[in-house]
Design goal:
303 residues; alpha/beta; eight-stranded parallel β-sheet; Arginase, Chain A; 8 strands
Length: 303
């Protein structure tokens, strides 16, 4: 049995230079995983595009329709930060389907990894910060609605607070949101997660891992979730363009290994998404994201 990996789009649609850095990394992550022999095509799963009904578990019908038809006003489109196109609609909806499939496979196999995902700045009625539809929120709602889980923990370790996710689940007892982020970073108006840890600029490996160790085991013991959704953003890296924290490659790997090992050893299935990461050198960035897959591959045999 091989670790399930979800891949759903080439992510190489040409974009203007000012928008280029968030997107091409996803396809490169997949190709490098194959090239380096970390995965084989046989273990890769491809999702279907998320239907409007699926999206409507989180997003308003008006927002879904406006984005999908390209009729969002200019202000709303600027807030997203990506130029609209039909390919962007397909890519976005398929990415949501990818995270839903990742969650389903994690419940089946114990661990599954998405080569994209983590659009945690998307609110029910608008997108923000390169995030259009909230894949983590849609996946959580889908799994709960299907009766596959009664309690879900979202562990969001992207450098930016998962503000959209926090708002979606602020009155939902079925989903607990946990965000560890740089306090003085986007979004500058924070929302309230169920547990927020705002870190000072320059937080390094040791301090970060210490804080994570103080909180994650405690949350797992309290909540005993049926599923953990893990947003493993690499933008806490010291050289990230939008980060402000100071983690190294080794620190990111130790973070991912700690999260996965802590959950899996206690029997909690984990679905991972790659989250944010921003660099002019997209190959270096893709290798940073692959640290998550290396940690997952090291731990998967114990399931």
């Amino acid at each position: 049995m091989a670790l399930p990996v979800i891949y759903h789009h080439d992510y190489v649609t040409p974009l203007p230079p000012e928008h280029r850095f968030p997107m091409p990394k996803f396809g490169l992550v997949y190709r490098l995983l194959l090239r380096d022999g970390l995965i084989t095509p046989e273990q890769v799963h491809q999702p279907v595009i998320a239907s409007q009904k699926l999206l409507a578990q989180v997003h308003t019908a008006e927002y879904i329709e406006a984005f999908c038809t390209g009729t969002l006003d200019r202000k709303a489109q600027r807030r997203i930060g990506l130029p609209w196109s039909e390919s962007l609609v397909t890519r976005t909806r398929t990415a949501v389907g990818g995270t839903v499939l990742t969650a389903q496979l994690a419940l089946q196999y114990g661990l599954a990894c998405n080569t994209a995902g983590g659009t945690h700045h998307a609110f029910p009625d608008f997108g923000s910060g390169f995030c259009i539809f909230n894949d983590l929120a849609v996946a959580a709602r889908t799994i709960v609605a299907a009766g596959m889980a009664a309690k879900i923990l979202i562990v969001d370790l992207d450098v930016h607070q998962g503000d959209g996710t926090a708002v979606v689940f602020q009155d939902d007892p079925d989903v607990f949101t946990f965000s560890v982020h740089c306090e003085k970073n986007f979004p500058f108006r924070k929302q309230q997660s169920d547990r927020d840890i705002g870190l000072p600029e320059g937080t390094d490996d040791a301090a970060y891992l210490k804080i994570l160790a103080e909180h994650l085991p405690d949350l797992l013991n309290q909540l005993q979730p049926d599923l953990v959704l893990y947003d493993a953003g690499v933008d806490p890296h010291h050289s990230d363009r939008l980060g402000k924290l100071a983690l190294t490659d080794e620190g990111l790997f130790k973070r991912d290994k700690f999260v996965l090992e802590t959950c899996l050893l206690q029997g909690y299935p984990v679905a991972t998404v790659v989250g944010g990461g921003y660099s002019k050198d997209v190959t270096v960035l893709a290798y940073r994201h692959i640290l998550l897959f290396r940690a997952a591959l090291a731990l998967f045999p114990m399931l």
